[in-house]
Structures are given as C-alpha cells and as structure tokens.
Specification:
- This protein is of the alpha+beta class.
- The protein is built from two helices and five strands, in the order βββββαα.
- Strand 3 and strand 4 form a beta hairpin.
- It is globular and about 35 Å long.
Length: 74
Amino acid sequence: MRIGPYRFFFYASDRDEPLHIHVERDDKVAKFWIDPVRLRRSGGFSRSEIGRIHKIVEENSKKIEEAWNEYFSH
C-alpha cells in the first residue's frame, strides 16, 4: 500500500509476530504495532514525521488488519 511518500508493507517472516506494519520512505523504515496503534521502531524518521505516519496508520488500521489476515492466511 502506498500513501503519499510512504510504502506500507509486511515481511513474509512477520507471520509469528503480533499484527504490525512496516513503513518506508527513502532509506528510513519504521514499524508500528496495530492493536492498539503504537510505534515499535522509528527507523530514522523525525518525531514530527512519526506523528504524521502514526495518524495514517490509525486511519488505515482496519485496512491493514484485513491485508495482514489475507496475506498470512495462505
């Protein structure tokens, strides 16, 4: 999923971890837990940008959860 300059994705090896999403822009990669939405790793993003990303993740948490369940159900 792409929103603005951000790419949201999972790794195939994420299956055994709690629901989360990785967010990438340029050479930075953050990780957010989804339920509840909270930052796991900031990956070089500034505090203000993390705030913007957090809001995007919250607004799309249902879509992220659905994509997670679909991706890992195979």
